[in-house]
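Notes, p. 3: input format for complexes.
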Amino acid sequence: MIILWGSSENQYFMKQAILFLIGISLLPQIAASSTSVSVKNLRVWNAPDHTRVVLDLSSGIDHRISTFSDPDRIAIDIKNARLSKGIPHEVKNNPYIKRFRYGKYSKNITRIVLDLKKPVRVKSFTLKPNAVYGYRLVVDLFDKNKRAVPKVIRPPARRPGIVTIAIDPGHGGEDFGASGRKKTREKKIVLSIAKELKRLVDKDPVLRSHMTRKGDYYVSLRRRTKQARRANADLFVSIHADAFRRSSARGAAVYTLSNRGASSETARWLANKENAADLVGGASISDREDVVAGVLLDMQMDKTLEYSLGFGGQVLKEMRKIAKLHSKRVQQASFVVLKSPDIPSILVETGFISNPYEERKLKSSKYQKQVARAIYRGIKQFISQEKVAFMKPASAKR
Ligand SMILES: [Zn+2]
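Output follows (398 residues plus zinc ion):
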């Protein structure tokens, strides 16, 4: 807002009135900045390539992070912070952090020190409240001596006739997914099912697996599909459990990508020429070739969607034998993890965690094993029906 001040007498009163209003609107902010923020808790999540430290806060904050060497440590400075009792000092089996220390840096600044085992690269950001947590400060630590993205990514060699299955347990870390009445967490249930599926896949001589998440940590959706491509996956299965505000909602469902989701995705890939070139055979794409690349990419996506539907149908048929179905046909939606243009992909909703009966079932290792077996049998059916038509040639460049 811009106010142009005049000088006439009657504008004087208006000026006073406006100043008064500005004064009133500033008051609460000034007051808020001088009250303290409490740091209520601290959590550590270990991912294979980084560690995430999360601080629970009573409100949004100003913070500053500094890195020191000799000995390696980082300091998180927070203005007007109060530390709750019981914040951990110790951390077990972490590759980066030795311990936490807390103290006053100056009159207004509270300092949290992370004593380190080795030099790190740090990324930090704040998060607004969600269903489970309030305000948070997230600090990610990466190995300083390891490159952020390996320069040469050498995908595992393809072995003829071996089908690679990317298994994607939904959510993880701070992202709990859906919750049941008995506090059953989706992230935990789907990881157990995924591990059981991995066991079945790895036992099979013509299959091999790649897990997009192996433990309790957060993996972004795009990163999951990227991992699948890197692993040269032929099929992608994402595993989830649903929730709905009506606790009577129940049943399993299988999803593939919707046509709308598919066409917006081909546009995205085309916008990134290197990605698109990768998909249409490694040739570089100039502007003039955009149309051709677009057509090829559309064809590729259509074929992938067709295979996804076939694959989803087989899994749904097997799920019907062990669970009540929420929808009797394969559903289509624009889920990000299903968007690989060249990997037939499905998402299995294994049941409603918000339904007390299904919550109990989802928690039982018996049902978890049944679901894993159903998905496994669906994979086998699809492979035997399509032979290897859906697989990319062994020379396919990734
Ligand atoms: Zn989910």
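The mean pLDDT is 84.
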